[in-house]
Amino acid sequence: MKRTLLIFVYLFLVFTATVVCAQSVSNPSNTPKMKFLIHVTQSTENPTVAALAFLVAKTALEEGHSVSIFLAGDAVKLLQESTLNTLTGLGTGKLREHYDAIVKQNGRFYLSGNSSKARGVTEEDLKGKPAEFALPTVLVKLATESDRVFTY
């Protein structure tokens, strides 16, 4: 009788462990979601890196994480339609495709106001886009609130 009870308890524990393991493998939503900040300074002079930044942002959003993208320096030009439509990275894809996926997944863009002004990026360039001009204080705030910061 005691042996039968021990076998039953052993089988119950093995079954329970198997179910728990199977649930955690088949349900990736158990993985904690993170907040990412992608800080981009590369633009048309380095299209592969610029497109890579957007590809990483797109991928994180597809995995259920939240993403903010801060464009500074020459990178502010990435949201101009002419650049969105023409930039392609070597092995990192088309900027337009990544941008559209980021927008669809509720990604948010912040553009350095000073960099934008110096490079002729205007409110008209941001019209209809989930983007806004921002000061360095916003970059610092986003960085402190994020779990991970990527810089391209």
From TrEMBL:
Signal peptide annotation: 1-22
Origin superkingdom: Bacteria
Keywords: Signal
InterPro entries cross-referenced by the UniProt entry: DsrEFH-like, Sulphur_relay_DsrE/F-like
Gene3D superfamilies: DsrEFH-like
Pfam families referenced in this protein's UniProt entry, alphabetically: DsrE
Protein name, as recorded: Peroxiredoxin
Lineage: Bacteria, Pseudomonadati, Bacteroidota, Cytophagia, Cytophagales
